Amino acid sequence: MYLNTSRMVIARLTRMNDTTAQTDKLYLAPGHLGCGVRARKSIAKGEVCGYLSGKLIRVQESTSTEGSNSVQVGPDLYVLPKFPVLYINHSCSPNAGLSHDLSLVAIRDIHLDEEIVIDYSTTMFEKHFTMDCLCKEPVCRQVIEDFDLLPEALQQHYIDLGIVQSFISEQYDTRNNHAASGLVKAINAELGIESKYRKKFSFLNRETTPAGDVHIRSQIDSPVNPLR
Question: Which domain holds residue 97?
Answer without folding.
Answer: 7-207
